[in-house]
Design brief:
326 residues; mainly alpha; three-stranded antiparallel β-sheet; 15 helices
Length: 326
Amino acid sequence: MATFRKRNKKWQVQVRRIELPALSKTFTNKKDAELWAKRQEVLAEQADAGQFVKPNQSHSFADLLIRYRDEVVVFKRCAEFETIMINALLRRSISNLKLYLLNSNHFAEYRDDRLKTVSSDIVRRELGIIQHAFQVAINEWMLPIPQNPIKRIKKPSPSKSRERRLKQGEMEALSRSLKFTKNLYLEPVILIAIETAMRRGEILQLKWSNFDSKNSIILIEETKNGYSRLVPLNSAATKILNLISRSGDQIFPTSASAVQQSWQRLTKRAGIDDLHFHDLRHEAISRFFEQGLSLAEVALISGHRDVRQLFRYTHLKAKDIVKKLK
């Protein structure tokens, strides 16, 4: 039975069982205290029923990741991306460790090792996935894990926002190299990205049933921020879509990984360095501002719910504003 006491703005919880020593712990909020108490009671009930198995006898970090991938990630919008990350993590030696041996030091070393080869943003994303996996295991699966080890380590600082645009001659180089690509959808996907500022995932989910060719509008049913969005299309984007042959309701029946791999081969073939597919979104939004569209108009197209996020795309210069003040 659990009892709770508030002392010095903190919650102390104590779990007592007959013929066993009492367990106690202090938390900053009552919700965490209640979750801990519930977990201790469940573990005790499992022990009484002979169901409790010590983590060093049954649970490895790989077991946790596989269950998280198969039971949680599959329902996420970013399921494909997170599945790839988890599968890669399963190939690393840290996944073989038993849960009872894992601590924050292991993941601090993992963080430092990964930062030698990948960006801080990728490491932050990986640690975020791992942290959520542990939290689900603690809160919902009642695995005997004392605390989330990721919460105790410092996350890498996010990298500076990219402001990469197409340089002179790069679009022409891409066009020449597209003639040799095997992915037939890569070219229209790239052109739609430049003309609409849609994200790769948004483009790949487009459906013919949501395309209003007459009024040049298309509906994105689910976006990164969880909202649907009606996107007005310029004449170039409308023409690109009308030229695509229809086979099923999906406009671009290809996967994100296929597009990413084709994009990497394309930029290498074109001799272009450090150009990400997502940079095409920055290029498109910058062009909208150069065409004279307002912040509100660009936000309607791009899907930014906070127009302040668009300030970095405007590339305003003091000398240009002086001309308008005259």
